[in-house]
């Protein structure tokens, strides 16, 4: 197995400034406010990947720009999430119209109302409110969760952050997560709908000191920790094969590395229940060092089309190192005290 110290040195020579920034700040723990790291963040602002994500910013005020905020995966919702993960410098005026549009979208009054079906078999018009059935809100909370995450990471203080946080807190299920399943008997949270709300609430709590958001993020973490991030509680078997396939970016999906990264951000990576997932991650390291992108959600295209990403994150190849996946894995191992291998 190649030395992780040598791997870090190699990443620090990457031509991609975001890879160097992620390695310095998230792996080596350097301060993002240091002059040298801030200069590196300015290189991210001018990088090819940022340019690809920002390419359509001039269209943001058009009525159907990006096919809507959420269009897979070229709406500004996804671009902002990617920029926040890159280490793109916050408070950029270029992003202000996007952030405003996204916050306006996800805090619409209809999301703040409750809609109860007349009977369990009937669906309600989503424009009237969020469905509440058998005491549980059935809502794709990953949308508001991601919006809170990138707005806090990239934007100036905004009262709509608190609106998003309160909605997520109100929709939280008894087991600590969220789910949009309208099957009346559904009573367990979804990993996919819980990961980004946990990350968003943790970021909001860290930025504002909100105690309710901190409690909600901790409750959400239990959804993953109680299952060791990928195993069924009933029999210990792997919940889904896709959870043990690594991806970048995840968008709204879930894999074990995304779960571990969420544990770092929520301050829970030291919990012993992360151990099996950390062991799996170390076992999955490539013989020559680093980690691969096993699969990819969506695809790259320079053209505007649904399901395509305007940034090229590298083709999936189980035998080849992907530096986006690798810097995420090293971040997790560094936070867990396992970087030395």
Q: Would you write up a description of this structure?
A:
This protein is mostly helical. It has 2 domains: 1-46, no CATH class; 61-321, no CATH class. The protein has 13 helices and 5 strands. The longest helix has 18 residues, at 191-208.
The coarse overall form would be globular
Helical residue percent band: 40-55%
What oligomeric state is this?
Answer: single chain
Number of H/I helices: 13
Strand order across the largest sheet = 1-2-3
How large is the radius of gyration?
20 Å
Number of domains: 2
- The end-to-end span amounts to 10 Å
Number of strands: 5
Structural class: mainly alpha
Q: Any chance you could write out the topology, listing elements then pairs?
A:
Layout: H1 4-11, H2 17-27, H3 35-45, H4 48-54, H5 76-86, H6 96-106, E1 114-115, E2 130-133, E3 136-138, H7 141-154, H8 159-171, H9 191-208, H10 211-225, H11 256-265, H12 275-283, E4 299-300, E5 308-309, H13 323-335
Parallel strand pairs: 1-2, 4-5
Antiparallel strand pairs: 2-3
In summary, what is this structure?
The chain is mainly alpha-helical and 341 residues long. It has helices spanning 4-11, 17-27, 35-45, 48-54, 76-86, 96-106, 141-154, 159-171, 191-208, 211-225, 256-265, 275-283, 323-335; strands at 114-115, 130-133, 136-138, 299-300, 308-309.
């Amino acid at each position: 197995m190649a030395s992780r110290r040598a791997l870090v040195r190699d990443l620090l020579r990457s031509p991609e400034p975001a890879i160097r920034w992620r390695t310095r700040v998230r792996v080596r723990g350097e301060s993002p406010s240091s002059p040298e790291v801030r200069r590196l963040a300015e290189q991210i602002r001018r990088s090819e990947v940022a340019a690809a994500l920002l390419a359509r910013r001039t269209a943001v005020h058009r009525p159907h720009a990006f096919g809507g905020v959420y269009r897979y995966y070229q709406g500004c919702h996804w671009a902002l999430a990617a920029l926040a993960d890159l280490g793109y410098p916050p408070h950029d005026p270029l992003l202000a119209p996007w952030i405003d549009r996204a916050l306006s979208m996800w805090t619409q009054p209809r999301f703040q109302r409750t809609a109860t079906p007349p009977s369990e078999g009937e669906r309600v018009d989503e424009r009237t409110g969020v469905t509440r059935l058998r005491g549980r809100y059935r809502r794709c909370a990953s949308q508001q969760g991601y919006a809170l995450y990138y707005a806090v990471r990239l934007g100036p203080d905004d009262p709509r952050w608190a609106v998003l946080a309160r909605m997520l807190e109100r929709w939280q299920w008894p087991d600590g997560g969220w789910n949009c399943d309208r099957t009346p008997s559904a009573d367990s949270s979804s990993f996919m709908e819980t990961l980004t709300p946990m990350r968003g609430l943790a970021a909001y709590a860290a930025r504002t000191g909100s105690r309710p958001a901190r409690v909600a993020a901790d409750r959400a973490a239990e959804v993953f920790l109680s299952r060791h991030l990928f195993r069924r509680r009933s029999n210990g078997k792997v919940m889904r094969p896709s959870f043990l396939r690594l991806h970048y970016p995840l968008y709204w999906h879930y894999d074990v590395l995304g779960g571990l990264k969420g544990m770092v951000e929520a301050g829970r990576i030291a919990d012993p229940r992360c151990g099996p997932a950390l062991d799996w991650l170390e076992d999955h390291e490539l013989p020559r060092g680093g980690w691969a992108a096993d699969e990819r959600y969506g695809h790259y295209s320079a053209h505007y089309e649904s399901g395509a990403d305007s940034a090229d994150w590298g083709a999936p190849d189980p035998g080849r190192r992907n530096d986006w996946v690798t810097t995420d894995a090293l971040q997790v191992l560094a936070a867990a005290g396992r970087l030395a291998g």
